[in-house]
Design brief:
17 strands, 32% helix, 6-stranded parallel beta sheet, alpha/beta
C-alpha cells in the first residue's frame, strides 16, 4: 500500500503536530531501548529541514485517563534530546494555551514534546471536542506512529478532521510498503513463519494468508496445538484445546490448496521453564512429563531448508522461549537463516514486530533483514487484512 506523504512545500513554515510512539521500555528512571524513538528520525529531520515547527505527541504506558507522574513523558526528555541531537521544550499537557505558546515560540534546533495524551480519558474515546482542541494550534498533522495506528484515538486519527492538511510520515509509509509486500501480493515462493504462544492470536492471519503462502512454518508454543491435532503426544507443552478444530481445519485446507505446512519434528524439552536440565525429544515420542520450549536441531534444519529459494518471508512469533539461552537456539538459527536469504539472494524479509522484533535485535540480524516492523498488534492486524484507522486516511491508491 502506498500512502500520502508530504513534500517540503507542504510543511515549510507550518506548525506541525507529529504523532510518534514513545511508549518505550522504561525502568529505574531510564529508557531501556530507544529503538522506537530513533524510528522517527527520518520524518522529523525532513520536517525540520523544510522549516516546519514541530510538536511531538505520544502515549506512554496505561495511565487510564488520569494524570500520573509515573507515566509522564517528561522522564524521557534527555533520551529524546540525545537521540535527535535537539533541544526539547516540554509542555505539561497536550492541549490548551501552553501548547500554543510553545509551538509559536519554538526556535531553530528545538522541538516541542507534549505530555502523555492518555492523561485525558477523551484520548482513547476519540472524543471530537478533545481532538479539535489538540489540533487547534497546528496547520498540519503527520502520523508516524505505526504501532498505534490500529487504535482509533484522538491523536492517531481524530485530529485529521481539524487540521488543514495531514500526511503519513516516513515510518508509516515504510511499514505500509513492506508489510504490503508480504501480505497483499507477495512474490512467490512465499514462506510464512508463525510462532509465539497462542493459536488464537494467529487465527485471522492464517485465514488471510493461507491461500497466498507457498509454505508455512509453525513453531513456538502454538505448534503443539497443531501436533496435538495430528494425534501426537505433546506432554506438558502449551496446547490450546479450544482451537484444536481450527488446527485440523487449517491443515486440511492447506493440503487442499497445495500449501505445505511444516511442524516441528523435534523439540528442546524440559520439566518446566525453570528447569536446569533439557533434552531433545522427537515429536513422535514426546515425554508425557515434559514440555516443549524450543524447536529441536532437526526442525532447525528442516525449517532452514524450507527457506531456500523463497522470494518473500513474513515472520511473526518466536520459535521458543528465546529470552532464556537454553531455549534460544531455534529462534537464533532461524533468524540467521532469514538474514542469509535476504543478504545473499535479495529475499524480501519482514519481521512482524513484537517479540520477533526483540529476538532479531537480540541475535543481531535486525539490520540484515528487509524490514523490522515497529508494531506488534498493528503489524498483525495489517497482515490479517484489517483496515487500520490511523493509516487508512492516508491511502494513496
Amino acid at each position: 500500500m502506498k500512502l500520502k506523504t508530504f513534500t517540503p512545500a507542504d510543511v515549510s513554515g507550518k506548525k506541525v503536530l507529529m504523532r510518534v510512539d514513545f511508549n518505550v521500555p522504561f525502568k529505574d528512571g531510564k529508557v531501556k531501548d530507544n529503538a522506537r524513538i530513533l524510528a522517527h528520525t527520518s520524518t522529523l529531520k525532513k520536517l525540520l529541514d523544510a522549516g516546519a515547527k514541530v510538536a511531538l505527541v505520544s502515549h506512554f504506558g496505561r495511565p487510564k485517563g488520569q494524570v500520573n507522574p509515573d507515566f509522564s513523558l517528561k522522564q524521557i526528555v534527555p533520551d529524546v534530546e540525545k537521540a535527535y541531537n535537539l533541544k526539547v521544550k516540554f509542555v505539561n499537557d497536550c492541549v490548551g494555551e501552553e501548547v500554543e505558546k510553545a509551538i509559536n515560540s519554538v526556535q531553530p534546533g528545538e522541538i516541542v514534546l507534549l505530555e502523555n495524551s492518555r492523561f485525558h480519558p477523551e484520548e482513547q474515546k476519540n472524543d471530537p471536542e478533545f481532538a479539535k482542541k489538540m489540533a487547534a494550534p497546528f496547520d498540519v498533522f503527520v502520523m508516524d506512529a505505526f504501532s498505534a495506528c490500529h487504535r482509533a484515538d484522538a491523536s492517531t486519527c481524530g485530529v485529521i478532521d481539524y487540521v488543514k492538511n495531514s500526511f503519513a510520515g516516513d515510518l508509516l509509509g515504510r511499514e505500509a510498503e513492506m508489510l504490503g509486500a508480504v501480505s497483499e501480493n507477495p512474490a512467490k515462493p512465499y514462506v510464512l513463519i508463525l510462532g509465539g504462544a497462542k493459536v488464537a492470536d494467529k487465527i485471522t492471519i492464517v485465514g488471510n494468508l493461507l491461500s497466498k503462502a507457498t509454505t508455512i512454518l509453525i513453531g513456538g508454543g502454538m505448534a503443539y496445538t497443531f501436533l496435538k491435532a495430528q494425534g501426537k503426544e505433546v506432554g506438558k507443552s502449551l496446547c490450546d484445546v479450544d482451537h484444536l478444530d481450527f488446527a485440523k481445519d487449517t491443515l486440511k485446507k492447506a493440503a487442499d490448496l497445495g500449501v505445505k505446512i511444516l511442524l516441528p519434528v523435534d523439540s528442546v524439552v524440559a520439566s518446566g521453564m525453570d528447569a536446569t536440565e533439557t533434552e531433545i525429544a522427537s515429536s513422535d515420542n514426546m515425554p508425557a512429563d515434559k514440555m516443549g520450549l524450543d524447536i529441536g536441531p532437526e526442525t532447525i534444519k528442516l525449517f532452514s531448508k524450507a527457506l531456500e529459494g523463497a522470494k518473500s518471508i513474513l515472520w511473526n512469533g518466536p520459535m521458543g522461549v528465546f529470552e532464556d539461552p537454553k531455549f534460544a537456539k531455534g529462534t537464533d538459527e532461524l533468524a540467521q537463516a532469514v538474514a542469509n536469504m535476504t543478504q545473499k539472494f535479495g529475499t524480501v524479509s519482514v519481521i512482524g514486530g513484537g517479540d520477533t522484533a526483540s529476538a532479531v535485535r537480540q541475535f543481531k540480524v535486525a539490520d540484515k533483514v528487509s524490514h523490522v516492523s515497529t508494531g506488534g498488534g498493528a503489524s498483525l492486524e495489517y497482515c490479517e487484512g484489517k483496515k487500520l484507522p490511523g493509516m487508512e486516511p492516508f491511502r494513496a491508491e
